[in-house]
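2024-03-11 09:14:02 INFO worker-7 job=invfold-0412 stage=load source=structure_tokens
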């Protein structure tokens, strides 16, 4: 028996070493990419941050130039519950502050029209809203959730308090959920659909707000292919110059759980929750995130304004996008001349969010 044990140890040791070395290498490589804290960036962040409350946030970080914009986008990695509350708060704030009433959505016109019908009804049609939320899973499985349902119930109640001139209207600008044939990319379709709605409805003087996936909210060329997502296409289009004025608020998460239902490409845990997709690794990495982590607390939501005139983010690429390991593609600058504020102007750091939960 002693000989057997010795042999087992002899053969197992190389396997253990072969397993541990890649893990250690991967961990060290991630830490090097994230980099340590930078005092110049931290000093700036401390002067331009606001800890948000669950209800009634003041959004003091939004300055006058922010409100002068015509397009406001909240960009998220889908699957985090806190984003739905943030989405409601920002839209409500913009509705009260500058009269934004058009909610542009990452959904097709069919579901958007159904949502508008729901908002107009004298009584909330629960079955209609449930149907819409479940349909969202066709395009964005991670967003179809109880929290999405609850948000639209809150928006329904809020909408009932508004004068007709401020009533909420949803504009679905995504490709048709059942469209599997079109060769036009989603972001190009979003721009074309948005422009068509503006033209048809004569909405050239309106302001718009929407919640989109992180990639769609980026305002400049991405990675080696130099592809421009929806927000970047908006800034480059010339049909409506007023809509080149875009403000993007990028949501970044730490210590949070993502709702991730299984797909053909990915097997997920039975509870459909994963904590490996925060931007400090191991799968997603945002360079410079430790600057924000060091000056915030766990279980908090903090808004940072990145593009003040003296901002170091106008000259650096710290926080500029997300590097993706193993699965998916990087969302990073195309070249060294791009700065963080070329992509987004605000960051919403979310620490300790629960995952979205499936709707029954």
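2024-03-11 09:14:09 INFO worker-7 stage=emit residues=360
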């Amino acid at each position: 028996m002693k000989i057997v044990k010795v042999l087992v140890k002899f053969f197992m040791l190389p396997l253990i070493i072969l397993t541990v070395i890649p893990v250690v290498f991967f961990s060290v490589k991630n830490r090097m990419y994230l980099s340590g804290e930078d005092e110049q960036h931290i000093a700036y962040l401390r002067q331009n941050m606001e800890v948000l409350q669950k209800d009634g946030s003041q959004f003091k970080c939004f300055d006058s130039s922010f409100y002068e914009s015509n397009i406001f986008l909240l960009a998220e990695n889908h699957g985090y519950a806190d984003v739905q509350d943030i989405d409601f708060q920002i839209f409500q704030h913009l509705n009260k502050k500058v009269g934004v009433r058009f909610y542009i959505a990452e959904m097709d016109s069919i579901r958007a029209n159904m949502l508008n019908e729901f908002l107009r009804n004298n009584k909330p049609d629960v079955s209609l809203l449930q149907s819409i939320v479940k349909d969202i899973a066709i395009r964005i499985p991670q967003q179809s959730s109880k929290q999405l349902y609850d948000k639209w119930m809150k928006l329904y109640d809020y909408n009932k308090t508004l004068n007709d001139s401020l009533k909420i209207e949803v504009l679905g600008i995504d490709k048709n959920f059942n469209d599997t044939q079109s060769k036009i990319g989603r972001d190009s379709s979003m721009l074309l659909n948005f422009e068509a709605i503006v033209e048809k409805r004569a909405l050239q003087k309106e302001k718009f707000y929407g919640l989109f996936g992180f990639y769609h909210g980026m305002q400049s060329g991405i990675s080696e292919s130099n592809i421009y997502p929806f927000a970047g296409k908006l800034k480059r289009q010339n049909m409506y110059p007023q809509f080149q004025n875009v403000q993007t608020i990028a949501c970044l998460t730490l210590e949070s759980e993502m709702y991730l239902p299984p797909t053909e490409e990915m097997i997920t845990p039975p509870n459909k929750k994963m904590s490996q997709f925060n931007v400090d690794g191991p799968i997603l990495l945002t360079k410079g995130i430790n600057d924000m982590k060091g000056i915030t607390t766990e279980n908090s939501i903090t808004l940072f304004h990145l593009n003040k005139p003296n901002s170091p983010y106008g000259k650096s690429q710290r926080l500029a996008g997300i590097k993706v390991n193993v699965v998916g593609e990087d969302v990073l600058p195309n070249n060294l001349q791009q700065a963080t504020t070329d992509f987004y102007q605000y960051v919403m750091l979310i620490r300790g969010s629960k995952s979205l939960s499936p709707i029954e």
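2024-03-11 09:14:09 INFO worker-7 stage=report msg="The chain has a mean pLDDT of 91."
2024-03-11 09:14:10 INFO worker-7 job finished
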